[in-house]
């Protein structure tokens, strides 16, 4: 018979070998589990998918800021625009433009720029622009379409409804719209402005007169007088 002690030694040796053989399998499972966890917890596709959404939001926000829709009028800004009111005792001069074929009154002291068929008078943030082109007689529909085309390149522009009107001795088309003016060199902001547009016609010539001032500035009476002073010839 085989001694009992040899049998016990053989059993212990066999059991030890079985445990050693099992170690690689356990190690493989232990390594595989963390690897699988790393691969599933944060894939690159999730990160990339989130980036366009952030970019789109930034672009939209930037668009709004560039148009000034999120900028509120401060007390200082309101005070500065109030200084643009044309005084009641303002003197007016008559500007005659032989090239454009018209005459119109403008406030004395305002700076004039341009010539021929495109002339602008300006003081502070107030502007009067007269542009003459060739074309058919304007109608409320045609003026409205033109303004919508202009709005396509100016996201700040909000057009009103064009209407036929009697302006002084002239029959014209009038429309009021709002937009943002040029950036202020002092505040860096673009003030919201109101523009009264008058479109006159005679003999194949179309004159567009834009009377602009910041919102909060009261130039109604002065601008009415300027629009009614327009004369062909």
What does this structure look like?
This protein is of the alpha+beta class. The protein has 5 helices and 10 strands; from the N terminus they run H-H-H-E-E-E-E-E-H-E-E-E-E-H-E. It has helices at 4-41, 44-67, 75-82, 140-153, 220-228, and strands at residues 92-97, 102-107, 111-115, 118-123, 126-134, 163-167, 170-183, 190-202, 205-214, 231-232. The strands form 2 sheets. It has a 7-stranded antiparallel beta sheet with strand order 3-4-5-9-8-7-6. A hairpin with a 2-residue loop joins strand 3 and strand 4 (118-123). The protein is globular and about 45 Å long.
Distance between the termini: 140 Å
In DSSP terms (H or I, runs of 4 or more residues), the helix count works out at 5
Helix content: 25-40%
Task: Tell me the strand percentage band.
Answer: 25-35%
**Whole-number mean pLDDT:** 76
Describe the structure in brief:
This protein has 233 residues and is an alpha+beta fold.
Q: What key phrases describe this protein's structure?
A:
233 residues; alpha+beta; seven-stranded antiparallel β-sheet; 5 helices; globular
């Amino acid at each position: 018979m085989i001694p009992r002690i040899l049998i016990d030694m053989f059993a212990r040796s066999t059991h030890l070998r079985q445990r050693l053989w099992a170690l690689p399998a356990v190690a493989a499972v232990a390594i595989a589990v963390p690897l699988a966890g790393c691969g599933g917890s944060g894939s690159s596709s999730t990160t990339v998918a989130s980036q366009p959404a952030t970019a789109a939001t930034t672009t939209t926000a930037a668009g709004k800021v560039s148009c000034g829709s999120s900028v509120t009028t401060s007390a200082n800004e309101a005070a500065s625009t109030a200084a643009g009111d044309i005084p009641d005792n303002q003197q007016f001069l008559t500007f005659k433009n032989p090239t454009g074929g018209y005459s119109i009154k403008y406030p004395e002291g305002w700076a004039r720029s341009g010539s021929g068929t495109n002339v602008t008078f300006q003081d502070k943030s107030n502007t009067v622009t007269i542009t003459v082109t060739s074309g058919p007689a304007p109608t409320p529909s045609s003026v409205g379409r033109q303004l919508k085309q202009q709005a396509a390149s100016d996201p700040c522009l909000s057009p009103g409804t064009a209407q036929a009107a009697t302006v002084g001795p002239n029959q014209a088309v009038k429309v009021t719209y709002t937009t943002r003016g040029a950036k202020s060199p002092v505040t860096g902001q673009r003030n919201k402005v109101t523009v009264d547009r008058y479109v006159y016609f005679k003999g194949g010539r179309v004159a567009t007169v834009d009377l602009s001032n910041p919102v909060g500035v009261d130039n109604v009476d002065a601008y009415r007088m300027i629009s009614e002073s327009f004369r062909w010839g």
